[in-house]
């Protein structure tokens, strides 16, 4: 990763990877959605409502995964001063926020028929909502500070501090009693989910990860190009002023 | 130590300190973060009457009574203690005997619980109906079936 921290090298490599990433993401998402919506059986308790899970669970996974990605990129950005790491963290934030919104929305849609309520303030749901606020705060911080290196530093500190919420989300269902059910997948005695649900779910998860990889590469490239444009523009202005002062 | 290593060490130790601090806060707040009390909790702690609380547990088999006025009476248990619930309202689809539920409401002077809302808890098991049937036939089924 560090070798590619040079923006020029990053542009070359990401440009070559992008078509493959987007192709794989598209293939996995189409296949996963087809399996989830048409092939997977009904659940013995939830009936057809179980299909919401195939969109909700990967979105929840990505909500935490994207934030962890941002925190790692922020540490690299802070400690090694690599500009591409800062830009990757910045590029990932809105994507993570969208996953968080998707997670909360699909969770509410599932909660209404199953639990009998759209929303409760239990530890899992509340910590998941806090995660969305962390994303929004991170984005706002970048927007609030004009100078990129200072903005990057402030936002990186927020990202690293906020990473504490991730184990809280993960273990909230074990540390406290909650309305939300405990984990089905990451269990010591193996997943308590039938293979006919597990496979579509795993394919959806892989699809979400590749979708994120595609978007974050694309958005980091855009950020690099934007900065190049800005410095070109500034250089132009400077030359223009010099010409004026000589003339 | 090089500067970048010093920065890295500083970041890592700050995160470590911060995690310890939040762990302490969370364990201090333990009682307020739980979503519901169990019937045993109700016995072991002082609960003010009229203060809204939630109590959760499994619906006791054979305890569900639908009265003519549209009220529902049932007991919930944590397998050690049980509490009688009175409820007047819509039950969620997943409500049935043996199912985990959370009732929101207040304690009555009689030690019973008057619920204003009943939520169903869903467990973490996902399986097709055929598999559930097969498990039941083999006797691996611990849950009461009341569909």
In percent terms, what proportion of residues of chain B is strand? 25-35%
Supply Rg of chain A. Answer: 21 Å
End-to-end separation of chain A: 49 Å
Quaternary structure? heterodimer
Give me some keywords for this one.
heterodimer; A: 247 residues; mainly alpha; 7 helices; 78% helix; elongated; B: 147 residues; alpha+beta; OB fold (Dihydrolipoamide Acetyltransferase, E2P); 2 domains; 5-stranded mixed β-barrel; 4 helices
Would you kindly provide a written description of the structure presented here, covering whatever features stand out?
The complex is a heterodimer of chains A (247) and B (147). Chain A is built from 7 helices and no strands. By secondary structure, chain A is mainly alpha-helical. Chain A has one domain (7-177, 196-240). Chain B is of the alpha+beta class and 147 residues long. Chain B has helices spanning 3-28, 30-33, 39-44, 129-137, and strands spanning 53-59, 65-66, 72-77, 82-87, 100-107, 113-120. Chain B has a 5-stranded mixed beta barrel. Chain B folds into 2 domains: 1-30; 39-138, Nucleic acid-binding proteins (OB fold (Dihydrolipoamide Acetyltransferase, E2P), Beta Barrel).
């Amino acid at each position: 990763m560090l070798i590619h921290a040079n923006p020029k090298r990053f542009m070359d490599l990401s440009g070559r990877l992008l078509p493959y990433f987007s192709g794989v993401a598209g293939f996995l998402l189409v296949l996963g959605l087809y399996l989830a919506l048409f092939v997977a059986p009904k659940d013995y308790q939830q009936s057809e409502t179980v299909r919401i899970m195939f969109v909700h669970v990967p979105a929840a996974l990505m909500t935490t995964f994207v934030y962890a990605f941002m925190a790692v990129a922020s540490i690299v950005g802070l400690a090694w001063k690599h500009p591409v790491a800062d830009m990757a963290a910045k590029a990932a934030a809105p994507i993570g926020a969208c996953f968080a919104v998707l997670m909360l929305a699909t969770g509410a849609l599932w909660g209404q028929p199953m639990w009998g309520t759209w929303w409760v303030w239990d530890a899992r749901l509340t910590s998941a909502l806090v995660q969305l606020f962390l994303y929004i705060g991170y984005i706002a911080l970048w927007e609030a500070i004009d100078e990129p290196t200072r903005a990057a530093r402030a936002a990186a500190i927020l990202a690293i501090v906020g990473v504490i919420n991730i184990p809280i989300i993960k273990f909230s269902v074990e540390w406290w009693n909650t309305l939300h059910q405990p984990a089905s997948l990451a269990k010591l005695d193996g997943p308590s989910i039938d293979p006919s649900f597990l496979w579509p779910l795993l394919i959806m998860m892989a699809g979400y990860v590749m979708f994120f990889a595609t978007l974050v590469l694309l958005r980091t490239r855009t950020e690099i190009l934007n900065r190049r444009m800005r410095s070109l523009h500034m250089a132009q202005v400077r030359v223009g002023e010099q010409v004026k002062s000589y003339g | 130590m090089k500067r970048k290593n010093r920065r890295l060490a500083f970041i890592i130790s700050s995160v470590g300190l911060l995690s310890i601090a939040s762990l302490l806060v969370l364990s201090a707040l333990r009682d307020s973060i739980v979503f519901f009390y169990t019937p045993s909790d109700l016995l072991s702690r002082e609960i003010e009457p009229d203060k809204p609380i939630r109590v959760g547990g499994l619906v006791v088999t054979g305890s569900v009574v639908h009265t003519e006025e549209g009220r529902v009476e049932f007991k919930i248990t944590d397998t050690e203690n049980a509490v009688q619930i009175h409820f007047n309202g819509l039950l969620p689809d997943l409500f049935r005997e043996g199912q985990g539920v959370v009732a929101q409401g207040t304690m009555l002077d009689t030690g019973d619980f008057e619920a204003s809302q009943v939520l169903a808890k869903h467990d973490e098991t996902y399986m097709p109906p055929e598999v559930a049937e097969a498990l039941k036939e083999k006797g691996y089924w611990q849950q009461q079936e009341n569909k």
